[in-house]
Amino acid sequence: MKDASFLPLSTYQEYPPEEMLKRAEEFADDLHRRRTIRDFSARALPAGLIEHCLNAALSAPSGANMQPWHFVVVTDPEIKRQIRVAAEIEEKEFYEHRASAEWLEALQPLGTDENKPFLEDAPCLIAVFVQKYGLLPDGRKFKHYYPTESVGLATGMLVSALQRAGLASLTHTPSPMKFLNKILGRPKHERPFLLIVAGYPADDAQVPVIERRAMADSVSFF
Known about the structure:
Layout: H1 17-32, H2 49-57, E1 69-74, H3 77-98, H4 101-107, H5 118-121, E2 124-131, E3 133-135, E4 141-143, H6 147-165, E5 168-172, H7 179-184, E6 190-199, H8 215-218
Antiparallel strand pairs: 1-2, 2-6, 3-4, 5-6
């Protein structure tokens, strides 16, 4: 006997096998065209586009349906500047002191360094926060289950939605990121998960030459 209220499933949409294969192939092809870029245009985004992409992310599954996330959309130039300044301080420390030689060697083909102009150039930043626990109106805490995994799922869906909409994106994780709580006024029970940079690529944008592993190297079938 179920304790919660349940309704008949009405949202599932089945397709003929041929259409299922076509839809799956087209979606995979679309995502494989995605490349992380670091050179963004300042072009404004269509009104409502980011909201639709976020709406897709908010449909993500989460542990016990606790939805332990908060997304902050930043388009204000001054706040983007503050984020860039704070991020570059942490990045400079990383590249000069924190990162091992092995880590720096792995990053070398990507051409990254402590300078992050895209944090100001791109029209939109989305800061993603993990809520370690929830708060009731009277201030009492309640547990969130699998918060990191849940936010990871929502973030993946957001990146996919941005690609599907025709935007370029970059996931950025300066460490530590506690400066985001201060700049964006988020409470202490929220932990910055990552920054997503979204917009159009600059006309002269370039990407490093890399290859993705073949399916046989990443997937097993039994």
